[in-house]
Amino acid sequence: MAESNVxxxxxxxxxxNELLAKFDRESNVRHFAGIPGHIVTGIMLLFAAYIFWxxxxxNLPEQVRRTNFLGFLVFIGYLLxxxxxxxATRKNHVPWYDH
Length: 99
Description:
Elements: H1 13-23, H2 34-56, H3 62-80
C-alpha cells in the first residue's frame, strides 16, 4: 500500500466564520455585543412574550395580530441581516443605507 502525505489544515473558528460569511449568504448576519446585543435580545424576548400572550389570553382581532406579527418579523429581519452581500465585519453597526 502506498502512503499519501496529505497536509490537512484545520480551520480556526475565526477562519471558519470568515469563510461562511464569504460564501454562505444566510450566515452573513450583523454582530451585536454589549448593550446593543442585550437590546436586540430583549426585542426578541418581547416578541416571544407577545406571541405567547396573543395565542394564550390575548383577544385581539386577527388582522391586528397578523400585522403586529409581520411588523415584528420585518423589523427583526432588517435589524439582523444586512441588505448587501459583503460580510458584516463591524460590531454594533447598522449602515445608513440599511435604514
